[in-house]
Structure formats: structure tokens, C-alpha cells
Amino acid sequence: MIRAVVFDVGETLLDDTCEFGAWADWIGVPRHTFSAVLGALTAAGRNNAETFEYFQPGFDLDRERRLREAAGCGERIGERDLYPDVRPALSALQKRGIWVGIAGNQTARAAELLRALDLPCDAIATSGEWGVAKPDSSFFDRVAEFAPGRREEILYVGDHRDNDLIPARRAGMRCALIRRGPWGYLWADDVIAAGEADWVVGSLTELVEAIS
User: Fold this and answer.
1) N or C: which end of the chain has fewer CB within 10 A?
2) EC number(s) per UniProt (predicted)?
3) Cα separation of 185 and 139, whole Å?
């Protein structure tokens, strides 16, 4: 029985196209070039944060985030960044009596922006607020405290095999991969073959139907 569903953010609920484009503009490289390097690192199973190092060795991501905010071009999360199935799916889960949470590797500022969207969910948290990030097991300990029910009654949904599925499963939770964003598409077949997810879905609407 699933009592709670907790969602990752980037490329699960949010289309990251605008944010990646904003980073490309900030560091002064063409958007398609930034995306190509990000894709190559993804295919190699490496951390996407390394993308910046190829363009600016020694890149300090936290510092550059602060500079972007100070320049008036910091993080922006609006309705247009949500995938179209987000509001209907989260609402459908709540109507079925399932607790809905959002918890991902984002800044504290992103948490504020997500709350301002007034999504149909019960709680929102980010790694920036918790002080621990995926795939650290402590992140999933926080998820277990955050959501109601026993760990085996909590479903974590994300697009990233190594950051979302594997650590959630090791933490004793159920897990689902959404085939969305570069990681979701790249790893879906491997996840299915290895049996690393309880569900692999193409949309959040499909997820609601699957767990119902």
C-alpha cells in the first residue's frame, strides 16, 4: 500500500529548459553547446555540475548562484516551467487520500518559488533547506521523517537512476522512474532490465493509474 508519494523536482515536475538556458547565457556559451556537453556527461554517468568546469575551470556554483541573484537574473520558477501533467496528477493523488510531498536537490530559494506556485501537495522541502543532498542516505532519512507512513509505504518518484531510484530503494522505500529529461530517457531501459524500479512511467498521469 502506498500512503505517501514524494516527487523529485527537476525533470520530474519542472522542465529545466529555461534554467539550463539561463546558465548557458550567464557563462557566455551558446545554449546548444551547453546542452551538448551536459548530454555527453550524462551519457558517461557523470555529475551534470561538471558541465561548468568544461567552460570555466574552477567554477564555483554557489558563488555564481549568488552573483546571478544579485544581478537580477537568478532562479525563476513559474507556471510555464511545470510539465502539463503536474497539477492534474498531484491533485488526483490527493483525491485518492495519498499524501503528496516534493523534495529534491534544489536551493532554499527554489523551495520558496515552488511554494509560491500553490501546487496541490502537502509539503515541499529542498536539499538547500535540509543541508543534505541526494544521493546521500541522510536525504532519504529526512524524506522518511517528512512523509507519513512506514518507509515501504512511501514512493519516491524521480528521473535519475543514481540520485533517486537506487538510494530510495536502499532506504527501504518504493521507487518510480519517469521517462522524462535526459536522465530519464537515457537510463529507463537499464532500470527496467535491472529491476531497479517498482514502476517506470512515461508521465505522471500514467503513474497515478499505475499505483491506483
Assistant:
1) N
2) 3.1.3.-
3) 24
Q: What are the backbone angles phi and psi of residue 187, rounded to the nearest 5°? A: -105, -5
Position 97, amino acid: G
Could you tell me if 111 and 126 are in contact, meaning their C-beta atoms sit under 8 angstroms apart?
yes
CA distances from 64 to 37, 61, 71, 104, 190 (A): 19, 5, 10, 20, 35
Strand, coil or helix: what is 172? coil
CB 155 within 8 A of CB 2: yes
CA distance from start to end of the chain: 10
Q: Give the integer Cα–Cα distance in Å for 87 and 31.
A: 29
Tell me the DSSP string of 16-61: THHHHHHHHHHHT--HHHHHHHHHHHHHTT--GGGHHHHHSTT--H
C-beta separation of 145 from 122 below 8 A: no
